[in-house]
Write a structure and sequence with these properties.
Layout lengths: L1 H32 L4 H32 L7 E4 H18 L3 E7 L4 E4 L1 H18 L4 E9 L7 E8 L6 H4 L9 H6 L7 H12 L3 E7 L3 E9 L20
Helix pairs in contact: 1-2, 2-7, 3-4, 4-7
Length: 249
Amino acid sequence: LHKAEFLTRMSHELRTPLNAVIGYSQILKEDALESDDPQMREDVDRIHDAGQYLLRLINIVLDLSKIEAGRMQFTVEDHQLIEILHEATSRVRQAMREAGNTMELFIETRDSDVSTDSQRLLQILGAVLDNVPVHAPGAHVELRCRSASIDQPGDGYEISVRDNGNGIPPERLATLFESLADQRDAAASKYGGTGLNLTITHKLARAMGCDLSVESAVGEGTCFTVLVPRAWSPPVSATARPDGAAQAA
């Protein structure tokens, strides 16, 4: 509990100056577009991207502490899973296009009604999809959604993200969701990597009654699978009220 409170306060303290850095760098980016100095544009882009990266990292650490302390709040509403999938793919299409990836979406279910926290589910899907342009540039991606029998009331859906990239070595695959030091990130990411993204994604999926798994073979590609219950109800203490306050347990 004390750890979560400390991280919450520290995250707030870090966000305040970081938001100023990101805000001013955005202004500089707009000014740099009108400049004839390509080095200036490149330097400002690096500052802005680094600020955004640090902000994402702070949010990841904060979410991880909330889940471990059982204080993560969820807003569960009725949605159409197809709409969530379209939103998830639209967010990553530009990055995939720039990395030379191609992507197809296959909906293999007539129904797509789901009761869940759509923003948190988008966070899970986004983390999986964001890995593709970084670790499998140029690969073809198939995103599939089908009905599935899972150990949850009302069954659910199976969402798979399969690429034909280089795959993940067995020694990395065994600890992909557990290690906080992801060597693949360190080798491929612009700023190195902590491995926290997939760690928090796996923990978040469990907290939402989902199941996140991965299969991979070197030279053949990787497939992440997310099992999503059709109707999920979080613990009362983890349910967010409209005003953002947590309900009492």
